[in-house]
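Supplementary notes for students who missed Thursday's class. We covered one full example, reproduced here. Read the sequence, then the structure, then the short commentary at the end.
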Amino acid sequence: MEDGNDMQSLWWRRSQLLAVLLIVGVLLSGLTLRISRHVSHLQHGGDAALRPWMNVAYIARTYDVPHDVLYRALGLDPSTQDRRPLAAIAREQLVL
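Structure (token representation):
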């Protein structure tokens, strides 16, 4: 009788171990996928690209750059607080 209980107990423990290993495998696969996506994103420039629809205030807030530095870099007066998108500023300056 004890041999049957021992076999059943052994089977139950193996099943539990297999379930835990499967769960750990799935979690590690998910973590590996997230890390590889993050590294790929960083290798391809991340969020470095400026877009024509962005305005100075948005860029300053997003990239943590002082407003006045951006205004001067664009050839604008820092006191104007210009809300136009970059495309409009570029058109006015005949860049686009």
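Commentary. The chain has a mean pLDDT of 86. The chain has four helices and no strands. If anything here is unclear, bring it to office hours.
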